[in-house]
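Hmm, what's this shape?
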Amino acid sequence: MRTKLIAGNWKMNLNFIEAKELFRDVQAIENNDKAIALCVPACYLSAFSNAVDPFIFAQDVSAHVKGAYTGEVSASMLASLHIMGSLVGHSERRQYHAESASVLKEKVDRLLENNLIALYCIGETIEERNEQKHEAVIQKQIIEVLGHLTSEQMKNVIIAYEPVWAIGTGVTATTSQAQEMHAFIRNEIERSFGQTCASQIKILYGGSMNASNAKELLACPDVDGGLIGGASLKVDDFKFIYES
């Protein structure tokens, strides 16, 4: 049985005092049958390293192993801090930093080489959905970045489905839309990596999950948790989602 994972993505928010306070508040959430992760800004990673409750993820990782890449943070650096893994391919990185599939593939490889988890984000735009291209877009994003991996390597991959049209817009996919896409993703994983991998991989919903819709979304059989944006900055909302 897959354990639910509730992951908060703080994005570029909070000064260090605010971050420490929120981190302590999240640590105080009573742990039950679900895991908690926090994707924190790079400058705070060392302060929260070694934490296992919640797990700590970076928000990005370099595609390079090491070298003259000013401002970049390598997977080996994350590993040396005992960070759990990193987001890869978040829609904001794709949009604002023009990250291509080839770059994302390299980032996933760097993480896996260091025994870290790649939390790989995929999703379609409103135009792609309206044109009924959403399944083809998702399939391509899976194949281009993960298709070269083995089923054994896929044990260190988590997928987050984040419909771009439902991030920061106040619009959320209906439970039927979310379940439909999560089931489609799981079927694609089964086609590429086998039934065992498909049954074990976590697929999170990352499209504006909040206190009002979390319970219904998390009840979907193929939704294994959430990648939470704005609501992760408010401990009461984050706790409510976790307990939903």
